[in-house]
Write a structure and sequence with these properties.
The chain is α+β, with helices and mostly antiparallel strands. The protein has four domains: about 70 residues; about 90 residues, PAS domain (Beta-Lactamase, 2-Layer Sandwich); about 70 residues; about 140 residues, Histidine kinase-like ATPase, C-terminal domain (Heat Shock Protein 90, 2-Layer Sandwich), CATH 3.30.565. The chain contains ten helices and twelve strands. The strands form three sheets. The protein has a five-stranded antiparallel sheet. InterPro entries: HATPase_C_sf, HATPase_dom, His_kinase_dom, HisK_dim/P_dom, PAS-like_dom_sf, Sig_transdc_His_kin-like_C. Its EC number is 2.7.13.3. It is an enzyme of class 2 (transferase).
Length: about 450
Protein backbone atom coordinates (compact mmCIF):
# COMPACT_ATOMS: atom_id res chain seq x y z
CA UNK A 1 0.00 0.00 0.00
CA UNK A 2 1.44 3.35 -1.06
CA UNK A 3 2.14 5.65 1.82
CA UNK A 4 0.62 9.14 1.59
CA UNK A 5 3.12 11.92 2.27
CA UNK A 6 1.84 14.67 4.52
CA UNK A 7 2.85 18.22 3.58
CA UNK A 8 5.40 19.95 5.76
CA UNK A 9 4.10 22.28 8.43
CA UNK A 10 4.95 25.98 8.41
CA UNK A 11 7.48 25.45 11.22
CA UNK A 12 9.16 22.60 9.35
CA UNK A 13 9.40 24.66 6.17
CA UNK A 14 10.93 27.60 8.04
CA UNK A 15 13.41 25.29 9.80
CA UNK A 16 14.36 23.59 6.52
CA UNK A 17 14.87 26.93 4.75
CA UNK A 18 17.07 28.17 7.61
CA UNK A 19 19.18 24.99 7.39
CA UNK A 20 19.47 25.31 3.62
CA UNK A 21 20.56 28.91 4.05
CA UNK A 22 23.34 27.77 6.41
CA UNK A 23 24.56 24.93 4.14
CA UNK A 24 26.72 27.01 1.71
CA UNK A 25 28.56 28.89 4.42
CA UNK A 26 29.02 25.90 6.71
CA UNK A 27 30.11 23.62 3.83
CA UNK A 28 32.66 26.16 2.63
CA UNK A 29 34.00 26.57 6.17
CA UNK A 30 34.35 22.78 6.58
CA UNK A 31 36.14 22.41 3.23
CA UNK A 32 38.61 25.18 4.11
CA UNK A 33 39.09 23.64 7.55
CA UNK A 34 40.20 20.33 6.06
CA UNK A 35 42.56 22.13 3.68
CA UNK A 36 44.47 23.58 6.64
CA UNK A 37 47.28 21.56 8.18
CA UNK A 38 45.66 20.67 11.50
CA UNK A 39 45.49 17.49 13.51
CA UNK A 40 42.56 15.29 12.40
CA UNK A 41 40.90 15.38 15.82
CA UNK A 42 40.91 19.16 15.88
CA UNK A 43 39.49 19.26 12.37
CA UNK A 44 36.54 17.01 13.32
CA UNK A 45 35.85 18.87 16.53
CA UNK A 46 35.81 22.26 14.75
CA UNK A 47 33.68 20.87 11.91
CA UNK A 48 31.18 19.47 14.43
CA UNK A 49 31.07 22.82 16.19
CA UNK A 50 30.38 24.62 12.87
CA UNK A 51 27.57 22.20 11.96
CA UNK A 52 26.07 22.44 15.46
CA UNK A 53 26.21 26.23 15.33
CA UNK A 54 24.41 26.20 11.99
CA UNK A 55 21.71 23.88 13.35
CA UNK A 56 21.32 26.05 16.47
CA UNK A 57 21.00 29.24 14.43
CA UNK A 58 18.38 27.58 12.20
CA UNK A 59 16.44 26.62 15.34
CA UNK A 60 16.64 30.21 16.60
CA UNK A 61 15.33 31.49 13.26
CA UNK A 62 12.47 28.98 13.49
CA UNK A 63 11.65 30.12 17.03
CA UNK A 64 11.71 33.82 16.04
CA UNK A 65 9.32 33.13 13.17
CA UNK A 66 6.94 30.77 14.98
CA UNK A 67 6.55 32.33 18.44
CA UNK A 68 4.88 35.61 17.26
CA UNK A 69 2.53 33.60 15.07
CA UNK A 70 1.59 31.46 18.05
CA UNK A 71 1.01 34.62 20.10
CA UNK A 72 -1.20 36.02 17.33
CA UNK A 73 -3.10 32.72 17.11
CA UNK A 74 -3.67 32.70 20.88
CA UNK A 75 -4.99 36.28 20.68
CA UNK A 76 -7.37 35.43 17.84
CA UNK A 77 -8.53 32.32 19.72
CA UNK A 78 -9.30 34.46 22.78
CA UNK A 79 -11.24 36.93 20.62
CA UNK A 80 -13.22 34.08 19.09
CA UNK A 81 -14.09 32.84 22.60
CA UNK A 82 -15.17 36.35 23.65
CA UNK A 83 -12.14 37.18 25.84
CA UNK A 84 -11.18 40.74 24.94
CA UNK A 85 -8.80 41.36 27.87
CA UNK A 86 -5.72 39.69 26.28
CA UNK A 87 -3.24 41.95 24.50
CA UNK A 88 -0.21 41.01 22.40
CA UNK A 89 3.15 42.44 23.50
CA UNK A 90 5.61 43.82 20.99
CA UNK A 91 2.97 45.71 19.03
CA UNK A 92 4.67 48.55 17.15
CA UNK A 93 4.15 50.36 13.90
CA UNK A 94 7.71 50.37 12.50
CA UNK A 95 7.91 46.72 11.43
CA UNK A 96 5.57 44.26 9.77
CA UNK A 97 5.16 41.84 12.69
CA UNK A 98 4.63 44.60 15.24
CA UNK A 99 2.09 46.23 12.93
CA UNK A 100 0.14 42.93 12.67
CA UNK A 101 0.11 42.60 16.47
CA UNK A 102 -0.95 46.24 16.83
CA UNK A 103 -3.87 45.72 14.44
CA UNK A 104 -4.87 42.59 16.37
CA UNK A 105 -4.93 44.61 19.60
CA UNK A 106 -7.01 47.31 17.89
CA UNK A 107 -9.39 44.62 16.64
CA UNK A 108 -9.76 43.37 20.21
CA UNK A 109 -10.71 46.87 21.42
CA UNK A 110 -13.22 47.32 18.57
CA UNK A 111 -14.84 43.95 19.18
CA UNK A 112 -15.06 44.68 22.90
CA UNK A 113 -16.82 48.01 22.25
CA UNK A 114 -19.19 46.34 19.79
CA UNK A 115 -19.97 43.58 22.26
CA UNK A 116 -20.70 46.08 25.03
CA UNK A 117 -22.90 48.05 22.60
CA UNK A 118 -24.74 44.90 21.56
CA UNK A 119 -25.30 43.91 25.18
CA UNK A 120 -26.63 47.36 26.02
CA UNK A 121 -28.86 47.37 22.93
CA UNK A 122 -30.10 43.88 23.77
CA UNK A 123 -30.86 44.94 27.34
CA UNK A 124 -32.72 48.02 26.08
CA UNK A 125 -34.67 45.92 23.58
CA UNK A 126 -35.59 43.43 26.29
CA UNK A 127 -36.79 46.26 28.54
CA UNK A 128 -38.84 47.82 25.74
CA UNK A 129 -40.29 44.46 24.75
CA UNK A 130 -41.30 43.79 28.34
CA UNK A 131 -42.91 47.20 28.86
CA UNK A 132 -44.72 47.92 25.59
CA UNK A 133 -48.46 47.37 25.63
CA UNK A 134 -48.55 45.19 22.52
CA UNK A 135 -48.11 41.44 22.20
CA UNK A 136 -44.97 40.44 20.26
CA UNK A 137 -44.28 36.92 18.99
CA UNK A 138 -41.50 35.50 16.81
CA UNK A 139 -42.01 32.22 14.93
CA UNK A 140 -39.46 30.06 13.13
CA UNK A 141 -39.95 28.73 9.61
CA UNK A 142 -41.80 25.68 10.98
CA UNK A 143 -44.21 27.98 12.89
CA UNK A 144 -42.65 27.24 16.30
CA UNK A 145 -42.70 30.06 18.85
CA UNK A 146 -39.18 31.34 19.54
CA UNK A 147 -39.82 34.64 21.36
CA UNK A 148 -42.68 36.21 23.32
CA UNK A 149 -42.86 39.33 25.48
CA UNK A 150 -44.71 39.90 28.75
CA UNK A 151 -47.86 41.22 27.07
CA UNK A 152 -47.93 38.14 24.85
CA UNK A 153 -47.70 35.93 27.94
CA UNK A 154 -50.70 37.70 29.47
CA UNK A 155 -52.63 37.45 26.20
CA UNK A 156 -52.13 33.68 26.00
CA UNK A 157 -52.51 33.18 29.74
CA UNK A 158 -49.27 31.23 30.23
CA UNK A 159 -45.63 32.04 31.10
CA UNK A 160 -42.96 32.07 28.40
CA UNK A 161 -41.38 28.78 29.48
CA UNK A 162 -44.68 27.00 28.76
CA UNK A 163 -45.11 28.74 25.41
CA UNK A 164 -41.73 28.58 23.70
CA UNK A 165 -41.41 25.72 21.26
CA UNK A 166 -45.14 25.29 20.69
CA UNK A 167 -46.55 25.69 17.19
CA UNK A 168 -48.91 28.49 16.17
CA UNK A 169 -51.92 26.22 15.93
CA UNK A 170 -51.52 24.98 19.50
CA UNK A 171 -51.25 28.59 20.67
CA UNK A 172 -54.33 29.70 18.75
CA UNK A 173 -52.27 32.15 16.67
CA UNK A 174 -52.38 30.35 13.32
CA UNK A 175 -55.21 32.65 12.19
CA UNK A 176 -52.83 35.58 12.62
CA UNK A 177 -50.15 34.05 10.39
CA UNK A 178 -52.43 33.84 7.35
CA UNK A 179 -54.05 36.49 5.22
CA UNK A 180 -52.92 40.08 4.83
CA UNK A 181 -49.82 41.16 6.71
CA UNK A 182 -51.66 44.16 8.21
CA UNK A 183 -55.32 43.90 9.10
CA UNK A 184 -57.82 44.06 11.95
CA UNK A 185 -60.06 41.27 13.20
CA UNK A 186 -62.07 40.13 16.19
CA UNK A 187 -60.82 37.19 18.22
CA UNK A 188 -60.98 35.72 21.72
CA UNK A 189 -57.73 34.67 23.42
CA UNK A 190 -57.21 33.15 26.84
CA UNK A 191 -56.15 36.52 28.24
CA UNK A 192 -58.70 38.74 26.53
CA UNK A 193 -61.02 39.22 23.60
CA UNK A 194 -61.91 42.13 21.35
CA UNK A 195 -60.75 43.80 18.20
CA UNK A 196 -57.08 43.36 17.31
CA UNK A 197 -54.70 44.88 14.81
CA UNK A 198 -52.35 42.31 13.26
CA UNK A 199 -48.95 43.27 11.88
CA UNK A 200 -46.70 40.57 10.44
CA UNK A 201 -43.24 40.83 8.93
CA UNK A 202 -40.58 38.33 7.89
CA UNK A 203 -36.96 38.50 9.08
CA UNK A 204 -33.90 36.24 9.05
CA UNK A 205 -31.88 34.99 11.97
CA UNK A 206 -28.99 32.59 11.59
CA UNK A 207 -29.81 32.31 7.90
CA UNK A 208 -33.28 30.96 8.70
CA UNK A 209 -36.55 32.70 7.87
CA UNK A 210 -38.64 33.83 10.85
CA UNK A 211 -41.89 35.77 11.20
CA UNK A 212 -42.51 38.61 13.64
CA UNK A 213 -46.13 38.92 14.77
CA UNK A 214 -47.42 42.00 16.62
CA UNK A 215 -50.96 42.11 18.07
CA UNK A 216 -52.42 45.41 19.29
CA UNK A 217 -55.63 45.58 21.29
CA UNK A 218 -57.80 48.20 19.62
CA UNK A 219 -60.81 47.85 21.90
CA UNK A 220 -59.61 50.27 24.57
CA UNK A 221 -58.40 52.81 22.01
CA UNK A 222 -61.66 52.57 20.08
CA UNK A 223 -63.70 52.97 23.26
CA UNK A 224 -61.63 56.00 24.25
CA UNK A 225 -62.02 57.55 20.79
CA UNK A 226 -65.75 56.83 20.89
CA UNK A 227 -66.04 58.43 24.32
CA UNK A 228 -64.14 61.52 23.20
CA UNK A 229 -66.24 61.74 20.02
CA UNK A 230 -69.43 61.61 22.08
CA UNK A 231 -68.07 64.24 24.45
CA UNK A 232 -67.22 66.55 21.54
CA UNK A 233 -70.63 65.95 19.98
CA UNK A 234 -72.48 66.62 23.24
CA UNK A 235 -70.46 69.80 23.84
CA UNK A 236 -71.19 71.08 20.33
CA UNK A 237 -74.89 70.21 20.44
CA UNK A 238 -75.24 71.64 23.96
CA UNK A 239 -73.50 74.84 22.95
CA UNK A 240 -75.60 75.35 19.83
CA UNK A 241 -78.90 74.37 21.45
CA UNK A 242 -78.23 76.55 24.51
CA UNK A 243 -77.28 79.46 22.26
CA UNK A 244 -80.75 79.21 20.75
CA UNK A 245 -82.80 78.22 23.81
CA UNK A 246 -81.35 80.87 26.13
CA UNK A 247 -82.61 83.87 24.11
CA UNK A 248 -85.88 82.05 23.30
CA UNK A 249 -86.47 81.42 27.01
CA UNK A 250 -85.59 84.99 27.92
CA UNK A 251 -87.79 86.52 25.23
CA UNK A 252 -90.66 84.13 26.04
CA UNK A 253 -90.53 85.27 29.68
CA UNK A 254 -90.52 88.92 28.63
CA UNK A 255 -93.46 88.39 26.30
CA UNK A 256 -95.36 86.58 29.06
CA UNK A 257 -94.76 89.51 31.43
CA UNK A 258 -95.87 91.85 28.67
CA UNK A 259 -99.14 89.96 28.24
CA UNK A 260 -99.78 90.04 31.99
CA UNK A 261 -99.24 93.78 32.26
CA UNK A 262 -102.40 95.69 33.25
CA UNK A 263 -102.96 98.13 31.77
CA UNK A 264 -101.06 96.99 28.65
CA UNK A 265 -98.40 99.39 27.32
CA UNK A 266 -99.11 101.28 24.14
CA UNK A 267 -96.35 99.52 22.15
CA UNK A 268 -97.23 96.00 23.30
CA UNK A 269 -98.14 94.74 19.84
CA UNK A 270 -94.87 95.99 18.38
CA UNK A 271 -92.89 94.39 21.22
CA UNK A 272 -94.80 91.15 20.75
CA UNK A 273 -94.15 91.19 17.02
CA UNK A 274 -90.42 91.82 17.47
CA UNK A 275 -90.10 89.22 20.22
CA UNK A 276 -91.89 86.52 18.23
CA UNK A 277 -89.70 87.37 15.22
CA UNK A 278 -86.58 86.78 17.31
CA UNK A 279 -88.00 83.48 18.58
CA UNK A 280 -88.83 82.41 15.03
CA UNK A 281 -85.36 83.39 13.81
CA UNK A 282 -83.55 81.47 16.54
CA UNK A 283 -85.81 78.45 15.99
CA UNK A 284 -85.04 78.53 12.27
CA UNK A 285 -81.30 78.78 12.98
CA UNK A 286 -81.48 75.81 15.34
CA UNK A 287 -83.44 73.87 12.73
CA UNK A 288 -80.83 74.64 10.07
CA UNK A 289 -78.05 73.49 12.40
CA UNK A 290 -79.78 70.20 13.16
CA UNK A 291 -80.46 69.66 9.46
CA UNK A 292 -76.78 70.22 8.70
CA UNK A 293 -75.81 67.69 11.34
CA UNK A 294 -78.32 65.17 9.99
CA UNK A 295 -76.96 65.65 6.47
CA UNK A 296 -73.41 64.99 7.71
CA UNK A 297 -74.47 61.89 9.66
CA UNK A 298 -76.61 60.36 6.89
CA UNK A 299 -74.41 60.72 3.82
CA UNK A 300 -75.40 57.83 1.51
CA UNK A 301 -72.79 55.71 -0.32
CA UNK A 302 -71.76 57.07 -3.74
CA UNK A 303 -73.86 56.10 -6.75
CA UNK A 304 -71.20 55.98 -9.42
CA UNK A 305 -71.52 57.12 -13.00
CA UNK A 306 -69.29 58.69 -15.62
CA UNK A 307 -68.41 62.27 -14.68
CA UNK A 308 -66.64 64.49 -17.23
CA UNK A 309 -64.21 66.53 -15.12
CA UNK A 310 -64.06 69.66 -17.25
CA UNK A 311 -67.83 70.01 -17.51
CA UNK A 312 -68.22 69.40 -13.76
CA UNK A 313 -65.65 72.04 -12.76
CA UNK A 314 -66.97 74.68 -15.17
CA UNK A 315 -70.58 74.09 -14.05
CA UNK A 316 -69.74 74.59 -10.38
CA UNK A 317 -67.50 77.60 -11.10
CA UNK A 318 -70.41 79.37 -12.80
CA UNK A 319 -72.49 79.07 -9.61
CA UNK A 320 -70.17 81.41 -7.69
CA UNK A 321 -71.15 84.97 -8.74
CA UNK A 322 -69.82 87.02 -5.85
CA UNK A 323 -66.17 86.90 -6.97
CA UNK A 324 -64.49 86.06 -10.28
CA UNK A 325 -63.63 82.35 -10.58
CA UNK A 326 -60.94 81.45 -13.13
CA UNK A 327 -60.95 77.90 -14.49
CA UNK A 328 -57.46 76.57 -15.33
CA UNK A 329 -58.20 73.87 -17.87
CA UNK A 330 -56.52 70.51 -17.42
CA UNK A 331 -56.45 67.45 -19.69
CA UNK A 332 -59.76 65.88 -20.77
CA UNK A 333 -60.60 63.07 -18.33
CA UNK A 334 -63.51 61.27 -16.69
CA UNK A 335 -64.22 59.71 -13.30
CA UNK A 336 -66.56 57.02 -12.08
CA UNK A 337 -68.12 58.90 -9.19
CA UNK A 338 -71.33 60.25 -7.70
CA UNK A 339 -71.83 63.50 -9.61
CA UNK A 340 -74.29 64.98 -7.10
CA UNK A 341 -71.94 64.41 -4.16
CA UNK A 342 -68.98 65.81 -6.09
CA UNK A 343 -71.06 68.88 -6.91
CA UNK A 344 -71.83 69.38 -3.23
CA UNK A 345 -68.17 68.95 -2.29
CA UNK A 346 -66.85 71.39 -4.89
CA UNK A 347 -69.63 73.93 -4.19
CA UNK A 348 -68.60 73.96 -0.51
CA UNK A 349 -64.91 74.38 -1.33
CA UNK A 350 -65.46 77.11 -3.94
CA UNK A 351 -67.92 78.95 -1.66
CA UNK A 352 -65.37 78.92 1.18
CA UNK A 353 -62.74 80.26 -1.22
CA UNK A 354 -65.19 82.94 -2.36
CA UNK A 355 -65.88 83.95 1.26
CA UNK A 356 -62.15 84.38 1.83
CA UNK A 357 -61.64 86.30 -1.42
CA UNK A 358 -64.51 88.71 -0.60
CA UNK A 359 -62.55 90.07 2.37
CA UNK A 360 -59.67 91.19 0.14
CA UNK A 361 -61.60 91.79 -3.09
CA UNK A 362 -59.54 89.03 -4.67
CA UNK A 363 -60.40 86.13 -6.92
CA UNK A 364 -60.60 82.34 -6.99
CA UNK A 365 -58.94 79.87 -9.36
CA UNK A 366 -59.91 76.24 -9.98
CA UNK A 367 -57.89 73.75 -12.01
CA UNK A 368 -56.99 70.11 -12.37
CA UNK A 369 -54.31 67.75 -13.63
CA UNK A 370 -53.92 63.99 -14.08
CA UNK A 371 -51.11 61.94 -12.58
CA UNK A 372 -50.60 58.22 -11.96
CA UNK A 373 -54.25 57.31 -12.49
CA UNK A 374 -55.53 60.01 -10.11
CA UNK A 375 -57.23 63.36 -10.58
CA UNK A 376 -55.60 66.27 -8.74
CA UNK A 377 -58.16 69.06 -8.33
CA UNK A 378 -57.08 72.34 -6.73
CA UNK A 379 -58.86 75.52 -5.62
CA UNK A 380 -56.89 78.66 -4.73
CA UNK A 381 -58.15 81.93 -3.26
CA UNK A 382 -56.58 85.33 -2.72
CA UNK A 383 -57.87 85.79 0.80
CA UNK A 384 -56.01 86.49 4.04
CA UNK A 385 -55.05 82.87 4.67
CA UNK A 386 -55.66 80.96 7.90
CA UNK A 387 -53.63 81.09 11.10
CA UNK A 388 -53.97 77.35 11.76
CA UNK A 389 -55.44 74.55 9.67
CA UNK A 390 -55.49 71.92 12.42
CA UNK A 391 -59.26 71.91 13.12
CA UNK A 392 -60.70 72.95 9.78
CA UNK A 393 -62.05 69.46 8.99
CA UNK A 394 -63.44 68.90 12.50
CA UNK A 395 -67.27 68.85 12.36
CA UNK A 396 -68.91 72.08 13.64
CA UNK A 397 -65.59 73.93 13.86
CA UNK A 398 -65.79 77.22 11.95
CA UNK A 399 -63.88 80.49 11.68
CA UNK A 400 -66.86 82.35 10.21
CA UNK A 401 -69.27 84.37 12.39
CA UNK A 402 -72.33 82.66 10.86
CA UNK A 403 -70.75 79.37 9.81
CA UNK A 404 -72.00 75.93 10.80
CA UNK A 405 -68.71 74.05 10.54
CA UNK A 406 -70.31 71.44 8.30
CA UNK A 407 -69.06 72.26 4.79
CA UNK A 408 -65.44 71.07 4.97
CA UNK A 409 -66.30 68.07 7.16
CA UNK A 410 -68.96 67.01 4.65
CA UNK A 411 -66.55 67.61 1.77
CA UNK A 412 -63.92 65.38 3.35
CA UNK A 413 -66.51 62.68 4.00
CA UNK A 414 -67.54 62.78 0.32
CA UNK A 415 -63.94 62.67 -0.92
CA UNK A 416 -62.95 59.79 1.37
CA UNK A 417 -66.06 57.85 0.37
CA UNK A 418 -64.69 58.02 -3.20
CA UNK A 419 -61.27 56.73 -2.05
CA UNK A 420 -59.57 60.14 -2.26
CA UNK A 421 -57.97 62.74 0.00
CA UNK A 422 -58.48 66.45 0.64
CA UNK A 423 -56.00 68.92 2.18
CA UNK A 424 -56.11 72.65 2.92
CA UNK A 425 -52.98 74.75 3.38
CA UNK A 426 -51.91 78.35 3.15
CA UNK A 427 -50.35 79.18 -0.20
CA UNK A 428 -46.58 79.56 -0.37
CA UNK A 429 -46.47 81.55 -3.62
CA UNK A 430 -48.98 84.24 -2.62
CA UNK A 431 -51.49 85.25 0.02
CA UNK A 432 -54.49 82.94 0.46
CA UNK A 433 -55.29 79.24 0.78
CA UNK A 434 -55.02 76.22 -1.50
CA UNK A 435 -57.28 73.17 -1.33
CA UNK A 436 -56.09 69.98 -3.06
CA UNK A 437 -58.41 67.05 -3.75
CA UNK A 438 -57.15 63.73 -5.15
CA UNK A 439 -59.67 61.29 -6.60
CA UNK A 440 -58.86 57.89 -8.15
CA UNK A 441 -60.20 57.09 -11.60
CA UNK A 442 -62.19 54.28 -10.02
CA UNK A 443 -63.28 54.27 -6.42
CA UNK A 444 -62.58 51.42 -3.98
CA UNK A 445 -65.89 49.71 -4.75
CA UNK A 446 -66.04 50.40 -8.47
CA UNK A 447 -66.31 47.44 -10.85
CA UNK A 448 -63.37 46.84 -13.14
Amino acid sequence: MKRIRRPLTHEQRVHALALLTAVPGTGTAVVLLFAVNLPPLVRWIVAALLVGLAVMLAGMVRTQMVRPLQTLANLLFALRRGDFAIRATGARGDDALGLALMEANALSVTLREQRVGNLEASALLSTVMAEIDVAVFAFSADRKLRLVNRTGERLLGRPAERLLGLDAEALGLDVCLHGQATRTFRHAFAGGSGRWEVRRRAFRQGGQRHELLVLTDLSHALREEERQAWQRLVRVLSHEINNSLAPINSIAGSLLDLLRADPPPDDREEDLRQGLAVVAGRSAALSRFMSSYARLARLPPPRREQVEVGEWVRRVARLERRVPVAVREGPPCTLRADGDQLDQMLINVVRNAGDAALETEGGVAVGWSWRDGELLLWVEDEGMGIGTTDNLFVPFFTTKPNGTGIGLALSRQIVEAHGGTITLENRVDARGCRVEVTLPERGPDSPD
